[in-house]
Structure formats: structure tokens, C-alpha cells
Amino acid sequence: MKKHDIKHHLSKDLLLAYSTGQLEEGFSLAIATHISMCDQCRAELESLEAMGGAVFENLEPNEIDVDAFAKTLALIDQTPEQAKVKPKATGLPEPLADYVGCDLDDIDWRPIGMGVKQKILVNSEKVSARLLYIPAGTAVPEHSHKGREVTLVLKGAFKDEIDYFGPGDIELADGDTHHTPVASEGEDCICLAVTDAPLKFNKLIHKIAQPFLKI
Amino acid sequence: MLLETKIRGSDHSINFRVYDIDSEKIESKKNVSVDSTNKQLWAELIKKVESLKDTSAFEELFNHFAPRVKAFLIKSGADHQMAEECSQEVMATVWRKAHLFDPSRASASTWIFTIARNKKIDAIRKQNRPEPEQLYQDQDYEPDQETIVELQQETERLTSALEELPEKQRVLVEKAYLGELSHSEIAEITGLPLGTIKSRIRLALEKLRHSMM
Predict the structure, then answer these.
(1) What is the pLDDT of residue A81?
(2) Chain B environment of A76 (Cβ under 8 Å)
């Protein structure tokens, strides 16, 4: 993955929740993808994991079965060793490529209006994760959030009332954020958007369309 | 030389080991804590598992870590049988993924903790866990000894820093890693003493990136 000058990073509480294994799948996808692009946050995560290692090391050991070691060796014999194979390049960071399953150019986008397209990747009860394709110069309808939203730019850039976000940048929004992201001119913008509650669109027409768009 | 002895005290069993590279001399000390030498030992054993498929090195690791993995899984909500089976699977993963262990970025405890944590998410929480892209090391990439030793010392300091945290804060941190805190409670944890180890890991990452170019 090409390295970019990333300005907007993950928050400490998201990283901590991820390092302890408490974060839902959809958010974890955004975290893992950002870290694949950002060594600053990777170092932050690995230092939090070192803290986990310290907690783990201090645990009172639990007695294990007498044949546990023999059983583990048998397990090792049953399953082949992981090969040192580098996965094929799809133009996407690995964790995301696992979910998309194809090259960026081959995604079966679904239009959601005004030239904006989406591809839903995770759609659980609590959290959904989707790729958004926003044509250069186009605005995503103004919306606010009932819950958290984590947006990660993969390609191109967008600007909203808060700042400018380029490849690798993370925007964190919560219930108080109202924003209208506009894709920058010159290049279409692709981002990963994760929300833990449906987005709220502020105009009536979008509110009507929302149930059909699964936004 | 490596010696491991188990002393049965009144109500605790104490594990201690002494590692002496230069001589055959075996020392015994009481209450030997897990020190830097020891941490380096674990890292070397993982290396032996990777390069030599050394079963006795693996057994050393197993005897130390499997009981902790099991304790971790029980604390995380697994019943005994599940924790037993999962800890065997975690240790089998240690064997299979030994080539991915990078002692310049993580101690053995840290690395095995992450495998146990992922097992917990997979087996207990039944969720997928997207993981960051692995940094594939070239065949001939060897992190230098100095970087490894510095990381081990930093891990060491972190362990004592954890013990020195105010009781309330320490309990909160432990609960967080054992999966006993909600998001909002996790957000309240601040002031973790991670500054130095973070810069060490950052440097190790830079060295690794440089070797990948």
C-alpha cells in the first residue's frame, strides 16, 4: 500500500477497544484497514497490545489437562503450516480486500442517488460497514448521526464543515455531528463508512428514500 | 542451561527458572520474577520453534503459556472444557505462526496474548476479527539484537508501570483486557504509560519498512 501523509488518526478509545477485542466487526474493519495504511497507529496499537501482554503475563495460571501438550502436537500434525505467501494485490489494504473479494474496479456498486454508489460489506444488527463511491465534486446529502460514524478515505478526498480528508484519513463523527461531505474535484472519492445506527438525512426526500437505500 | 523447578508452598506453587548462557552453572533463587533474560528466552524459544521445529523448545513455551491462555479464556467467559480446547488451539497457532513473530515489536507474552484474544473473539464472541495487514519480512530480515533487547527492557518497564498504577486504575486496565468493560468504560481509561514503548515500536517498524523497500 502506498504511504500517504495521513493527518487524521484513530482515537485512543477506538484503538483500546480494538486491542482488547471489544469492538464490533464493522468498526474493527475500519481500524484494521487504517492501521494497514498508518504506522503511527500501528505503533499505538502494538503498544496497547504490550499492555495486554503485561496483564496476560500476570494472570494466575490455570491447571491444564495432563495430555494437553500431546493433544496440541496432534493438532499441529493435523493442520498444514501457514505458507509464507503474500496475498495478491487488489489495490486495497488486505483486511478490506478480504471483505470486498475483488479489485476496486470490479465492485458491483449499487446507486443510492445523485451519482453516489455504495457496496455494503457488513450489515449486522448494530453496526454496518459500506464502501461509498462519491463522484468528484459531488456532495453526500447532509446528514447527522444517531450513533458513531467512522469514515476512512481510500481514494480521492472529501471536504466537509470540519476539515479536508485525504487517503488514509479517518473522520470520527457522533450524534452531535452534522456534516455535508463533498468529494474533491479531480478524482472520484471512495471511502469506507461504518455506523452503529442508521444515518439521519436532514431533508424530507432523503428520509423517505432511506429505508430503501439501507443507509 | 535451563532449569525449571516447581516448589509447592503452603498454598501457592512458584515457578522459577534460571537461564545461563555462558556456563553450565545452575543457580537457584527464590521468587525469581519474569525478568528481561527470561523474556528473551521466550523469544529465542519461538525462534527455535520456527527455524528448527524444535519440540522441546515448544514444550517449554507450552508449559509456561498454555496455563495462562487457559486462565485468560476462563476470565473471558469460557467454561473449562472450551478454555482447555481453545488453549490447545492457541498454542498450535503459536507453532504455525512462529514465522510471523517479530521480537523487535512484541514480547512473546504480548504476541501470545494477541493470539489468545483473537481466539476469544472467534470462539466465545463468535465474531469475525479483521486484522491489519501483516508486514511480510524478507527471508533474510533479522531485527538487530539491540532493538530486540531494548523492546524487552521496555516491556519490562511497562509491566512494573502497570503494577505501580493506582489500584483503581490498574483494576480497570486489567478488566479492559479481560473483556469485562463496556465501550464507555473503556473510553474512561486514560494515562496509560505507553509513550516510550510506542516510540520503540515505531523505530522497529521504520527499520522493518526500510528493509522491505
Answers:
(1) 61
(2) 92, 95-96
Q: Which three cell numbers stand for residue B91?
A: 498454542
Nearest chain B Cα distance for residue A11, angstroms: 10
Task: List helix spans (H) across B97-212.
Answer: 108-119, 145-164, 167-177, 183-187, 195-212
Instruction: Note the pLDDT tens digit of each residue in A128-163.
Output: 999 999 999 999 876 666 788 999 999 999 999 889
* Residue B173 with chain A: CB contacts under 8 Å: 51, 55
Look at A50 and B99 and tell me if their CB atoms are within 8 Å: no
- DSSP per-residue string spanning B30-84: SS----HHHHHHHHHHHHHHHHH--HHHHHHHHHHHHHHHHHHHHHTT--HHHHH
Please give the mean pLDDT across all residues of chain B: 82
Nearest to A51 among B34, B120, B192 (CB): B192
Cβ proximity of A45 and A15 under 8 Å: yes
- Report the range out of A114-118, A208-212, B6-10 with the highest average pLDDT: A114-118
Chain B residues touching A168 at Cβ < 8 A: none
Q: What is the CATH number of domain A1-215?
A: 2.60.120.10
Residue of A nearest to B119 (CA): A21
Closest partner residue to A56 (CB to CB) among B62, B68, B83 is: B68
Same-domain check for residues B170 and B84: yes
Residue with cell 505501580: B164
Q: Do residues B41 and B18 share a domain?
A: no
Q: In a mutagenesis test of the B interface, which of A19, A76, A170 is the best target, namely the one with the most B β-carbons within 10 Å?
A: A76
Grid coordinates representing A18 are: 480494538
All three cell numbers of B181: 468493560
Would you say A211 and A199 are in contact if contact means Cβ atoms under 8 Å apart? no
Name the residue among A50, A58, A98 with its Cβ closest to that of B110: A50
Query: Cβ B62–A72 below 8 Å, yes or no?
Result: yes
Whether residues B38 and B138 fall in one domain: yes
Number of domains in chain B: 2
Closest residue, chain A, to B182 (C-alpha)? A22
Q: The domain containing residue B25 runs over which residues?
A: 1-32
pLDDT higher for A198 or A44?
Answer: A44
The answer to which of A3-17, A19-33, B62-76 has the lowest mean pLDDT is A3-17
Same domain for B104 and B57: yes
